[in-house]
Amino acid sequence: MPTVTRTCIASFSVRTSHALPVESLKESLQFIHDIRDALISDDIFPKDLQAAVLEPIEGIFNLDDDDVKLSLTAYLSISNASEEVYRKIQKMVKERYPDSQMLSFEQIKKKVQEFSRVTPIVSHMCVNSCVAFTSKYEDLHACPRCGQLRYRTKGKNT
Ligand SMILES: [Zn+2]
User: Fold this and answer.
1) How many whole angstroms from 14 Cα to the centroid of ligand 1?
2) How far is the CA of 35 from the centre of ligand 1 (A)?
3) Domain assignment present for 153
4) Does residue 31 contact residue 135 with C-beta atoms inside 8 Å?
5) Is pLDDT above 60 for 10?
6) What tens digit of pLDDT does each residue of 92-101 get?
7) Are residues 73 and 35 in the same domain?
């Protein structure tokens, strides 16, 4: 369940420089306990994600479309690289084979989500990477560590 793991790690991303050490440790321990006790059936996970994980699709995909097949192969091959790597590969393929309909990064990412039915859970982060606005921070409008606003105010970029 990579989605679950990524979300939990993001929740645990807490910078301690602005917090009292004991309070920070207590908070970190609480996050550890929350991660340890998390279940896919918990309400924080969308029902469709729960179904995708608990009842995975079984069988072999028959990809008739060579462009989708190429896109999927490239996407899976660079799984630990950045999006930019995929974009560069796509650009090279399109330059060499102008008729290629290799999918954009966004298109193949969407296809993979359709195939797997597993969709990411996205949580906002403090612009200074102090915390993720998830779990007990989910409803906050400013970072509890550095005070930065969660959202940009209209007309300002800070
Ligand atoms: Zn912050």
Assistant:
1) 9
2) 21
3) no
4) yes
5) no
6) 999 999 999 9
7) no
